[in-house]
Design goal:
It is a single chain. The protein is built from five helices and 15 strands. By secondary structure, it is an alpha+beta fold. The protein has a five-stranded antiparallel beta sheet with strand order 11-10-9-12-13, covered by helices on one side. A three-stranded antiparallel beta sheet has the order 1-6-3, with no helix packed on it. Strand 12 and strand 13 form a beta hairpin. It is flat.
Length: 286
């Protein structure tokens, strides 16, 4: 992470704690953002020996019970967090080199791009063909150790071995799309926290997934190459709405809402239960 520090520590749990102490030491001149979430308590701050010290010290921390069924993004527990990333643009700039598309495709990928060009006359058709190609031809499998916890492998390598994680498949899709004349950039999202990431300090660990944001003219699409092959047209291309995403672009100024026509596709189920007689009798269910 280019020497940038970020992290957090819990200050509250679902059980009471008799004594809780946490201590953070950073260089005194470091532009570290430090804050406490979901608590009025603030750390004691002191400077000594060229270091700035933050200390949290609590007694008899109360337990907090969250109702079952609360959304995953709802995190009411007290927490301390810190980050050297000044804003979300700084996080996007960190990710930019990782998702830089190679200057050219290898012979095998170039042949696939030519095939798509010949079979699909429109930009939208080429976008869908590239997406389906990566969804169908590259197994969704990650070996996420070392640098590959956050950095994708080269597109030609991913295609040659026919497997890759979300990062690998996204960079491969972007390489094909840009070769086909479709503007595309990576979009970092969190499938669990979703819009809850907006409450965090900017940091790369706020995300657990990456997808593609493609643009043709004034229209844009959110594409996920890790999904099973999608055969719908562009108007009905389904993409789960993860709330907010960070576009990996030098122009990114913050998190952007995910808006997609396909994301509005849904199933509505209407259930009527008639218990007007008494609960000990059979209940009508329609």
């Amino acid at each position: 992470f280019e020497g940038h520090e970020f992290g957090g520590t819990d200050l509250q749990w679902g059980v009471p704690v008799a004594r809780l102490r946490a201590r953070l030491l950073v260089p005194a001149n470091d532009p570290m953002q430090v804050r406490t979430r979901n608590s009025e308590a603030r750390p004691l701050v002191s400077v000594h020996d060229g270091l700035r010290e933050y200390r949290w010290d609590f007694e008899h921390t109360r337990a907090l019970t969250v109702e079952k069924g609360a959304p995953d993004w709802y995190e009411p527990f007290a927490e301390a967090e810190w980050s050297e990333y000044a804003d979300w643009n700084a996080v996007a700039r960190w990710a930019l080199p990782l998702y830089r598309v190679p200057a050219g495709l290898g012979p095998e990928l170039e042949a696939e791009a030519v095939r798509i060009e010949r079979s699909e006359p429109t930009q939208v058709g080429r976008m869908l063909a590239a997406l389906r190609f990566v969804q169908h031809e590259v197994r969704y499998l990650g070996v996420e150790t070392g640098r590959n916890t956050h950095a994708p492998n080269p597109p030609d390598l991913v295609y040659a071995r026919r497997f890759g994680d979300c990062k690998d498949k996204v960079l491969l899709t972007m390489a094909l799309l840009q070769r086909l004349g479709v503007a595309a950039e990576a979009a970092l999202v969190n499938t669990t926290m979703q819009r809850g990431i907006a409450a965090q300090l900017p940091n790369p660990a706020a995300f657990d997934h990456v997808i593609v944001h493609a643009r043709i003219g004034a229209r844009s699409w959110w594409l996920d190459p890790t999904r099973p092959m999608q055969e719908s047209d562009a108007e009905h291309l389904y993409q789960p709405d993860y709330g907010l995403g960070l576009l990996v672009s030098p122009a990114s100024r913050g998190l952007v809402p995910m808006r997609s026509a396909g994301s509005r596709s849904r199933r509505e189920v209407h259930v009527v239960m008639d218990a007007r007689k008494q609960f000990s009798s059979p209940v009508g269910f329609r």
